[in-house]
Amino acid sequence: MEDIPLSKSEQKRRALRLQALGRQLTELKPTQLSELTLPDQLASAIADYQRFPSREARRRQLQFIGRLMRGLDPEPIESALESIRGHSAKARYEHHQIERWRERLLEDQEALTEFLSEFPETNRQDIRHQLQVVHKAKTEPQRRVASRALFRFLKAIVQEA
Q1: Which domains does the chain have, with CATH numbers?
Q2: Average pLDDT over residues 74-97
Q3: What is this structure's pTM?
């Protein structure tokens, strides 16, 4: 069966979708970009876009990024973006798992033993310190800040495992 060539309108729609995907890549932080496996030329173009102050320069660079992306398969990049942004089912599951661990650790002393047995590479002093900071918080805003810090700490441990 022969491949039917795409119409000019379809080619433009595809180019605009790839350019929009490129724009999403430019909005990522450098640490998030490093998690993606992008070709060197595309990664360099994205870094240049983030460096440019001029609106017109950014517009032209975005078109260049879109052109570079035409030669790539967008599926892996889109799925990696979903994972980074927390839209994938796996990311949501991990987020809920970490929330459950945080609540259990704050409510039950025995949960710390379970957590340390499941994640043996965890620094015991650090996790105890994080829990102590949450318990010693006097005001509700302090408690929320400390609780978020504990969540980030647990997230780093779970993602390393």
Answers
A1: 8-85 (1.10.60), 89-160 (1.10.60.30)
A2: 78
A3: 0.52
